Amino acid sequence: MLNVAVPADRPLEQMAARAQAYQQLYEWPVCVSPDRGELVLSVRAGVDAIAVRGELGIQTQRLLCARLLAGPVLLLPKDDPEQLPDWVFLTGPAQNLSRQTVADIGRADVRLWPHDEFVPLPPSRLPGGEVRWSTSPVLGRPLPPWISVIGAMRWCAANGGAP
Fold first, then answer.
1. How far, in Å, CA of 57 to CA of 55, rounded?
2. Residue-wise burial string across 90-127, b where 16 or more C-beta atoms lie within 10 A, e elsewhere
């Protein structure tokens, strides 16, 4: 889905230790990218990712927090530092969507991260800067249901933000 920039100034052993920590603490499929030396999450069964533009991400996370459904969210910096970063919501497994929902989220520029692709995790670097957490994962808390995050994004896009 995106290209990770040149490796950060971090030893491979340090990145491997971080990958192992994510695996043990959160049971996520995390590894070190062999070609870039960056920390990445593999999108596959059990973990999905949904990317949106910054404004919609802020509104969606506000709504999910109010509904006690917020989960971990990554910020992927853009090349232009004046632009808000993209927000990537980590969720539980994806589900089938109706045609209407697919149309709605397409108009809102909601991007479903393809399976078997990799999401960069902190402290990975992109051309626009370092990947960081907006909302860090919480030990023992499951990822939010995928359909709840999609529903919140759809609602915010249709209604101009969180209530």
1. 5
2. bbbebeebeeeeeebbeebebbbbeeeebbbbebbbbe
Burial zone of 79 (CB within 10 Å; 0-12 exposed, 13-18 middle, 19+ buried): exposed
Specify the pLDDT at position 94: 87
- The DSSP letter of residue 44 is B
pTM, two decimals, is: 0.89
The mean pLDDT value for 37-62 works out to 94
Distances (CA, A) of 137 to 17, 101, 127, 128, 154: 17, 27, 24, 23, 23
C-alpha angle 14-16-17 in degrees, rounded to nearest 5: 65
Nearest to 147 by CA among 109, 98, 103: 98
Assign 42 to helix, strand or coil: strand
In the chain, domain spans: 12-159
